Amino acid sequence: AVKSILVMAGSLKRAEPNLPEDMLLIRAMRDSNIPKFLKDDAILFMALVTDLFPGIEIVDAVNPALEKSIQEELTENNYEAYPPFVLKVVQLQETMVVRHGVMTVGQTQCGKTVCAETLKRSLLRLHNDPDIDPNKENQFYQPTTLHTMNPKAVWMEELYGTVNEVTREWTDGILSNIARKVVRNETKERNWIVFDGPVDALWIENLNTVLDDNKMLCLVNGERIKIPDTVTFFFEVQDLRVASPATVSRCGMVLLEEHDVHDGWRLLSKRMNRAMHAKYPELWFMDRLEEILEDCLPPSLKFVRQNTKEYLTSVNAQVLESLIILLESFLKNLEVDDDEPPEAVRRQIAKPKKKGDDDDDDEDEAPASPTTQPDEPAEEEEDRLKLDLPPKDMDHKKIFEMYIALSIVWTVGGNVLGTDRPKVDEFMRPYLVKISPEFPEDGSVYDWCIHKKSMSWVPWTYKIPKFVYQRELPYFSILVPTSETTVFTTFLRNLMTVRRNIMINGPTGVGKSQVISSFLLEGLKSDSADSEYRTFDITFSAQTS
């Protein structure tokens, strides 16, 4: 820490020799520590500096050319030039000036990769600007090549290299191979070796000699590779829980939090919203979506975080991205005729019960028994047939709002435990009614889907496909369709059309594998020679994932 402060103070003194040394030293101490502090700790740190050095006014070093370049790069690549995020990119550059080992720390989707990519392109823009660097002599304003790897995805031998125990032959690993390439590069071009994965003592301790002043990569075969000054070791990590003090003290740190990307989801929302509007100009109402998200998403996320438990831990940006992806899948399949279930299954389906209904006392509303004759339809059967509504002219804005409501239910509230769904139902219903005034009051918010032709809400049970018993199938291969399997099959089919990755989570034994296998075989016909899809299964465990 002391060394980095002195190095930064020296560079500041050379850049501005006429400024007081005490002020430059305080600025160096501030600039080398602020990037690694939490927001609240940064405020406390600045208060301590003010108390320890009263009367000294710190003159900030401003690099308007770099800031302007960063803002232009963000805008051109459909990102938001949000001032706190621009500041983080500047801090990353300042950290790289004094350290050749740099770590960006933060939760997933907080902008670590975008921060590095933006800085890379910004430096190249400055390199090509004749007014900024006419002689191409600035060692940092140079073209940069990124060598990215996940160190936890390979064995240690594959990362650093190994000696064959029989033949004693040396085989280079990924890192040693990259190191040889960058050493042979004698130009001023910079190389960032990016480790995008968790940091632990199993692999990073071997880099201690690289990260200190020696800059020496020591291999198992006794070979030592001197790393040139044009190389930066860049780590993108979520946390440093298991990193040793020896490693942490050798690296510069830049911490990215959710407030640096506007609460974690707002910047991503604007970016994806613009992209989807350009993709579906007639179907995507950008302003309406932004209005709904600003009104509904913050309180809903806060409620889910504080009052429910999730199967898998999620972050706000991931929930927002899932919401927009699901909404896109619905709109892309708007013309697909999938409203009606098979006629033969209609007698077996019932509408959701109204709140307060008694299942035991009202015998008239019991579903028809399997022995009911076709010429003696039950009273419930007549009610079910009345769900067929006449088609209406398509109102794209109305159907867009309805699909927003459906997407919010299954993204914000789709990852919570089943026991917490009644809480989500009670909290979300007023917001859903505000989005779509025709949202039903009966049942749960999870019970309803959209009938596109009539632009109305119908229960998921309306879409349950016909079940045909096949005697030759093994017992454990039989899948009886329910409203839950219908939900997931519908989502799988829609998300497949927009080419998105899908994860289904839940406790053991609830039928995740069975639903997916049934969809692949019956929905995509993956076992048919004429199908464009091919499938294969991989079993993951705690050792493989």
What would your notes on this structure say?
It is a single chain. This protein is 42% helix and 9% strand. The chain is of the alpha/beta class. The longest helix is centred in the middle third of the chain and has 22 residues, at 286-307. The chain starts with a helix and ends in a 22-residue tail after the last helix.
What descriptors fit this protein?
9% strand; alpha/beta; two-stranded antiparallel ribbon; globular; five-stranded parallel β-sheet; 11 strands; 42% helix; 545 residues; single chain
Q: Could you report the average pLDDT, rounded to the nearest whole number?
A: 84
Strands of the widest sheet, in order across it, are 2-5-8-1-9
Regions with little confidence, pLDDT below 50 for 5+ residues: 343-351, 359-386
What is the makeup of the main sheet?
Answer: 5 strands, parallel
Estimated share of beta-strand residues: 5-15%
Structural class by secondary-structure content: alpha/beta
Number of helices: 18
Level of helix content? 40-55%
- Radius of gyration over alpha carbons? 30 Å
Order of helices and strands: HHHHHEHEHEEHEHEEEHEHHHHHHEEHH
